[in-house]
Design brief:
By secondary structure, the chain is of the alpha+beta class. Helices cover 15% and strands 37% of the residues.
Length: 71
């Protein structure tokens, strides 16, 4: 049985530029409300639940992808 008090999470792969190198970070973030954000980058930069856990340097962000959960 799933605990309704625990927020669902979704995997996101962030690719960041770092002085000519690329860093890959996989993170699990609170699932956004359906239809609230048109673009993934908007969710990463604006969602209060995401901002409470993660700072994304938009100047270094090259790509962001949802990870396949296999479901």
């Amino acid at each position: 049985m799933t605990d309704p008090t625990v927020a669902k999470r979704i995997g996101v792969r962030l690719i960041l530029a770092d002085g000519g190198d690329f860093l890959v970070h996989d993170v699990a973030l609170p699932t956004p409300e359906p239809g609230r954000y048109e673009r993934l980058v908007d969710w990463l930069r604006e969602d209060p639940a995401v901002l409470a856990e993660l700072h994304v340097d938009a100047a270094r962000l090259v790509a962001a992808h949802l990870l396949d959960t296999g479901a």
